Amino acid sequence: MNMYCQSAFHQLEVVIASISEIAGQLTEEELALRPTEEKYSIGELLEHLSIIPAADGKIAESASEEEMNALYQSYSLQSKEEILERLFDHFSQLKTQYENYTEEELHTETVSWWGVTYTRYEWLLQIVAHMYHHRGQLHAMLVHSYRKDPEILLFE
Description:
mainly alpha, DinB-like, DinB/YfiT-like
C-alpha cells in the first residue's frame, strides 16, 4: 500500500479505536438519546459512523445516487455490538479496496453523484475528515448535552 495511504489508514485506526471506546461506555438506552430534534440520536450517529467507510468507499468509485440510497436503506443496526461489528467490517473492506489500487488508480479522478471530483486518494482524505467530524459530534453530544465525558484521548 502507498505510504500516504498507510498514514491515512493509521488515522482511521485512531478514530475508530476512540469511537469504539466511547461506544463501549454507553448503555443501550443511551443510544436513543437525541439532544436536538430532527437530528441524529446517539445510536443513529454511531450507525452513520459505522457506514461511512463502506459508503464513502463506494463514492470514491463513482456510485450513483440510487446505489447510495439503496446502501443507506439496507442498514438498520440496533445494538452497540452490531454497530461496532459493522464499523470494523467496513473499515476492513475499505482497507482492502485501497490496498488493491495501483498508484495510477489512486491518482485517478472520480466524480460523486452530486458532482464533486477528487482523486481516489483525496476521497480517502475525505473519509478520514468525515470520521473525525462525526466523532467530534458524538463527543460534543455526550459532553455538552448529557454531561457524560468519556475521558478518552481523542488524538495520539
